[in-house]
Design brief:
By secondary structure, the protein is of the alpha/beta class. The chain has ten helices and 21 strands. It has a single domain, classed as FAD/NAD(P)-binding domain (3-Layer(bba) Sandwich), CATH 3.50.50.60. The structure holds flavin-adenine dinucleotide.
Length: 409
């Protein structure tokens, strides 16, 4: 357990429900800037060890890395692989779009980090902060919010009073539902098969995104001559592929992967995640703010789900800290409105882009196929348009919160 507190009743400035990849950075950013923060996480921290590999690897964009560096987490991340080039191809077509990090400077587009190493680094950093308590495993029985404040009763009888509660409790957010906030969205009838492949030849830091007919097939560079695959298939086909024996799975994977990295071997388990899009109707309610998957979820086509969540984290932390420094109430409506205005539009734009890309690339209608190939080739030759897409991959577009530019709060 990272931290605990045994008092039956206590007060904290900010209560965060969910100690995942968005909840923990928010807690650290706020505690680092001086607020008293408490996190409730229902999973026991003992489950977060370097031995447990859940197959999830995240592309941490350049801007997200700035945030993690500024709040003192990045130095604790044990393994990370820089992403230097991104190559996008359309099925069997030879036309492709090539993003080279040197066109924007010396810094890579981002880094591939296994989620388990990120969680371990977050927990290490959290332990360094005296004003941050992580209660785990713990959840709440009830949370009441009104103009005066937040009152949480935990399942073990403890009680916490706070000025603001943050829902960082993931896609199925209980807090969002209890606040009566609806969502819009749909399932893609696709699943993302995730596995790790060890290969004979080095990947040279190149990420490949191939748009195959059933959906994108991404090969993302990891440490130690390994790559992470995010392989999209229709739900039925994915279920069939998941049931294949080792030889059958290897054959299906190799057919799509190709031979450019020499001999291949699947290492570790394979996983399948249902893919869906959702967007919360509101990101705020009285003394409540939603961040990360509690607020939105998208197709992993551009590897942006966590990066979008970290943009929420950076914006919310900035609004809360700036308000508290003026001696005002960080849980007030005016403070939360600022957060909502900043984040909702940005999220809708990225959700629409990833949804549109998925639809555009999963059609085999010949005129559309031709147009998108010509589009890829044209973008490749237009420096300003290409620069815009490359800045998106680095997460450096739009009105940037300070933490994403590497400035502390
Ligand atoms: C196949 C796939 C590949 C992906 N690849 C990428 C990528 O390359 N790059 C990227 O940026 N994103 C990627 N994503 C998206 C990314 O993984 C998610 O956006 C991110 O993990 C969401 O984090 P979160 O903290 O908001 O939610 P979660 O990870 O769901 O965490 C929520 C936490 O809250 C806790 N919790 C829930 N309810 C309660 C409760 N009532 N009480 C206490 N605790 C509670 C849970 O135990 C959990 O720890 C990918 C997603 C998929 C499916």
């Amino acid at each position: 357990m990272a931290k605990s507190k045994d008092e039956a009743k206590f007060t904290t400035d900010i209560l965060i429900v969910g100690g995942g990849l968005n909840g923990l950075p928010l807690a650290i950013a706020l505690a680092d800037a001086g607020l008293d923060v408490t996190v409730l996480e229902r999973e026991a921290p003992e489950t977060v060890t370097a031995e447990i590999f859940d197959g999830r690897v995240s592309a941490i964009a350049h801007a997200s890395r700035n945030l993690l560096k500024t709040i003192g987490v990045w130095e604790h991340v044990a393994e990370k692989e820089p992403m230097l080039d991104i190559r996008i191809t359309d099925g069997p077509s030879k036309l492709f779009l090539h993003y080279d990090h040197r066109q924007l400077g010396d810094e890579p587009f981002g880094h591939m980090v296994e989620n388990r190493f990120l969680r371990i680094a977050l927990l290490k950093r959290a332990q360094e902060l005296k004003n941050l308590k992580i209660l785990a495993p713990a959840t709440y029985e009830s949370i009441e919010r009104n103009q005066a404040g937040v009152h949480a009763k935990l399942d073990d009888g403890r009680e916490i009073r706070a000025r603001l509660v943050v829902a960082a409790d993931g896609r199925l957010s209980r807090l969002r539902k209890e606040a009566g906030i609806g969502t819009v969205g749909w399932s893609y009838d696709q699943a993302g098969i995730v596995c790790t492949v060890k290969h004979e030849l080095p990947h040279q830091g190149v990420a490949q995104e191939r748009f195959l007919k059933p959906g994108p097939f991404a090969i993302l560079p990891m440490t130690d001559n390994r790559s992470s695959l995010v392989w999209t298939e229709k739900t039925d086909t994915a279920a069939h592929i998941m049931r294949l024996d080792e030889a059958g799975f290897h054959a299906a994977m190799s057919k799509r992967f190709g031979t450019y990295l020499g001999k291949l071997k699947v290492v570790g388990p394979r996983w399948s995640y249902p893919l869906a899009l959702h967007q919360a109707d509101e990101y705020i309610a009285e003394r409540l703010a939603l961040v990360g998957d509690a607020a939105h979820g998208m197709h992993p086509i551009a590897g942006q789900g966590l990066n979008l969540g970290l943009r929420d984290v950076a914006a919310l932390a900035e609004v809360i800290i700036d308000t508290a420094r003026l001696g005002l109430d960080p849980g007030s409506n005016s403070s939360l409105e600022k957060y909502q205005q900043w984040r909702r539009f940005d999220s809708i734009v990225l959700l629409a882009i990833t949804d549109g890309l998925n639809r555009l690339f999963t059609t085999d209608f010949e005129p559309v196929r031709l147009a998108r190939d010509l589009g890829l080739a044209a973008v490749n030759k237009m420096p300003s348009v290409k620069g815009f897409f490359m800045e998106h991959a680095r997460g450096t577009v739009g009105e940037m919160p300070r933490l994403l530019s590497g400035k502390s709060l």
